[in-house]
Amino acid sequence: MSNFNKFIENNFISNQKDVELYSFHNLWLRNYWDRWHIFLPKPIVGHLGRMPRIPWINFDWMPRIMP
């Protein structure tokens, strides 16, 4: 598990699962998600820690509409 990561201007295309999130304080910005085509923040759902699994949510605040 690593924290304080930056995911900026990536393309998430044809993945069975977009992201497996086990960390916090991440920055998600201007990424393309092939299953997200609206001008709203993209929720990124995951868990903090392995056990106990605490639900956690991040957002890509400005997702791209095109790759």
Task: Give a written overview of the molecule.
The chain is mainly beta. It has one domain (6-60). It is built from no helices and six strands. It has strands spanning 6-8, 11-12, 27-29, 32-33, 42-48, 54-60. Strands 1-3 form a two-stranded parallel sheet. A two-stranded parallel sheet has the order 2-4.
Which runs of at least 5 residues are low in confidence (pLDDT < 50)?
none
* H/E topology pattern: EEEEEE
Say how many strands there are: 6
Major beta sheet, strand line-up? 1-3
Overall form: globular
Short account of what is shown:
The protein is an all-beta fold and 67 residues long. 0% of the residues lie in helices and 36% in strands.
Annotate the secondary structure layout.
Blueprint: E1 6-8, E2 11-12, E3 27-29, E4 32-33, E5 42-48, E6 54-60
Parallel strand pairs: 1-3, 2-4
Antiparallel strand pairs: 5-6
Features:
67 residues, mainly beta, two-stranded parallel sheet, globular
